[in-house]
Amino acid sequence: MIDARKPLRVLVSEGSSTSGREAVTILGAAGHHVEVCDPSRWCLARYSRLVRKFHHCPPLRSDPAGFLRFVERLLATRRFDVLLPTHEQGFLFARAAARLKPHVGLALPDFSAYRAVHGKAGFSRLLDQLGLPQPPTHIVRSAGELREAVRYPSVVKTSVGTASRGIWFVRDASDLNLALYDLESAGDFAGEVLVQDLITGTTEKAQSVFCRGTLVGFHAYRQIAAGVGGGEAIKESVSRPAIRNYLETIGAHLGWHGALSVDVMMPLDSATPLLIDCNPRLVEPGNAHRAGTDLVDLLLRVSLDETPVPLAESRAGVRTHLAMQALLGSASRDGTRRDIIRECGRIATGEGPYRDSTEELTPMRLDWPSAVPLAMTAALMLISPQLAASLARGGFGAHLLDRASIAAIESERFC
Question: N or C: which end of the chain has fewer CB within 10 A?
Answer without folding.
Answer: N
